[in-house]
Write a structure and sequence with these properties.
Number of helices: 9
Structural class: mainly alpha
Shape: globular
Number of strands: 2
Radius of gyration: 21 Å
Largest sheet: 2 strands, antiparallel
Number of domains: 2
Strand content: under 5%
Keywords: Membrane, Transmembrane, Transmembrane helix
Length: 296
């Protein structure tokens, strides 16, 4: 099981050169309200109630530097790419997504816990907006830390513990159908707005149900399934961040806030779609070969 879709090794250093300044700039943007003087573009003829005519792109620049930098660091080839590094990369990807959603679940629970303070959650996560900002890059950061930790830990070994998944029954069934029901409900509500009070709650549950689906075993588990999982997870991460980077440039204010909220579900959703597509394609090819063999 070797990793695919990796950048050349030297891109890791480019990633550091982009990511570190991006984090520094992002800190000043978030906590000091810093904007690069003159780094503006006129997007509208006049100011509106919520939007300015001149848009400063400092925060967009910071986010782009951070994400591109982390992607290059995370997915650049190491000196020795083999079966072990493929397994380590799969382990780190799954661990990163799991820990990130663990934070999300804990934050969600704490959001509903009555507090004497004005803020809830983790303190510096004042609300979902704050959480979604950190969620834009935290999965990549966790992956990098986990991946290089495992590389160091296993530098003299040739095996790594397999990733533990939820059992096929009942978790895959629960995660799959709960996700489908919620997605259908949200689509219907988008087309025909429903006057319901639990809409926000359904969106809160959706990332968890998708994660249960993604982390459940298939009926048959083998090396091909693991390799397909790794490929699907990498594709999901790449597509997710390409969408995010494009949205970072094209959407502003409340529109980008919607993108941030959707970012909570895009990685597991894209993973599931790609993973199931690859399995379905393989099954069709196998069935076609059997049919051809029998015909001969």
């Amino acid at each position: 099981m070797k990793s695919r879709f990796l950048f050349p090794g030297y891109c890791r250093y480019i990633g550091y050169l982009l990511g570190i300044p991006g984090f520094v700039l992002g800190y000043f943007v978030l906590y000091q309200n810093y904007e690069i003087p003159g780094f503006v573009l006129r997007l509208r003829a006049t100011d509106t109630l919520f939007l300015k005519a001149l848009e400063n792109f400092t925060n967009e620049l910071a986010l782009t530097l951070v994400i591109v930098g982390l992607l290059l660091v995370a997915f650049s080839k190491v000196k020795q790419e083999d079966e072990l590094t493929g397994k380590i990369r799969l382990n780190a990807l799954y661990w990163a997504i799991l820990v990130n959603y663990g934070f999300y679940l804990l934050f969600t629970i704490l959001m509903f816990v009555p507090s004497s303070n004005q803020h809830s959650g983790f303190g510096f996560f004042d609300n979902y907006l704050d959480f979604t900002i950190y969620n834009l890059f935290v999965p990549l950061l966790i992956f990098i830390l986990r991946f290089y930790y495992l590389l160091y830990q296993n530098k003299n070994e040739y095996n790594i513990k397999a990733v533990r998944y939820l059992t096929n029954k009942p978790y895959r069934f629960i995660g799959k159908w709960l996700s489908i029901i919620i997605i259908c409900f949200l689509i219907v509500n988008r087309v025909f707005p429903l006057k319901v009070n639990f809409l926000e709650s359904t969106f809160i549950v959706l990332p968890i149900s998708l994660l249960i689906w993604a982390y459940s075993k298939e009926k048959t588990e083998d090396e091909y399934i693991n390799a397909t999982r790794l490929e699907a997870m990498q594709v999901a991460v790449y597509v997710n961040y390409v969408i995010l980077l494009v949205s970072n440039i094209l959407f502003y204010s409340s529109d980008f806030l919607e993108i941030q909220l959707l970012n909570l579900i895009t990685i597991p959703l894209i993973f599931i779609v790609w993973f199931q597509y690859k399995l379905h394609s393989t099954n069709n090819e196998s069935h076609l070969k059997k049919t051809t063999t029998l015909a001969l």
